[in-house]
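User: structure tokens for Transcription termination/antitermination protein NusA, please.
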Amino acid sequence: MSKVEPVNLIDTFSEFKELKNIDRPTLISVLEESFRGTLAKMFGSDENFDVIINPDKGDFEIWHNREVVADDEVEDPVSQISLTDAKKIDTDYEVGEEVTDAVDFLGFGRRAILTLRQTLASKILELQKDYLYNKYKDRIGQIVTGEVYQMWKKEILLLDDEGNELILPKTEQIPADFYRKGDTVRMVVVKVDNRNGNPKIIVSRTSPLFLQRLFELEVPEIHDGLITIRKIARIPGERAKVAVETYDERIDPVGACVGVKGARIHGIVRELRNENIDVINFTANVSLFIARALSPAKISSIRLDEENKKADVYLKPEEISMAIGKSGMNIRLASMLTEYTIDVYRDIEGEEEEDIYLDEFTDEIEQWVIDVLKSIGCDTAKSVLAISREELIQRTDLEEETIDEVLNIIKAEFEE
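Assistant: Done. Predicted tokens:
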């Protein structure tokens, strides 16, 4: 049995030497399959060939097996060899014996090498795509870390520690996020697309899941299951409300999440670009849950419409602005957290001077203007007058002329 000097795979196929994510048995199988595919194209069949891959040495050997036949009986040169040619290999060969000789693959020329390289590249790319998809489809909802590689207007391309590409769309970035190439970013995997066999990993920093995972990292009691996060509402980069509960009476869930002097929550706040985070105790009592969700405002009473998931909340005049919050943020988050539409009303019970509900002004003030005023907690005439002209303009975003007209109408009513 003759033998040729093996050809080093690393030298011949250098682009594959740094392959990641593909285990050795799989790579050997792919190499062998690629060689066999090339041999089949050249000879019409690979059945009479043995392909041996030596991963430790980084080389390969190909052996051609043929039956020795009489010189005038060769019908298939792939499976048969004439006695004369066989004796050139070894003079002891006789008809009927099997000849196994080494194949000089590189001797087949540039086309054979090119075909092999293309086949290898195609199969390995397919394997890498499968690996990437299988790795990340099981990591949806988990935090990953990536390095900023390239930035575009609508998205950022990041690379994980294995060089896999992660996409952070603009819509999934916190408004205050600002990155440079090379920056390290933490985010949560939210989606893995695999259209046409091309996996696309979508990550997010605005998802409530990202906030939940950060709490799990910072608060051991949550990680250990002693405290459960029941609900999260977020306006990314601005404010969030997190409802937590525990079945262990010895644990204060809110205190544990905040930490001594806010030590635990400060790390999360910094990660989220100074997003303010309110942690409240969850309760199945809807009225109480809504009251807690509207914190720091203190409510006077609540009227629930459970069928339509609506809540009318009554507060003292000085509490209304706190309940609504800057730009309506507090009441919006409370609605998101409780899944109830919340309307706030001025609690006029017990006031000496009679007040008038805005709905009674529909003959003089357009209904849509009244609805805007009610959306900021002004459901009565006096609740409107209790707020300065400038604040009304800012909070309602109504035209100055419209606000002036409303104020004149209401003031005229009381002057009468």
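User: Anything notable?

Assistant: The two ends are 119 Å apart (CA to CA).
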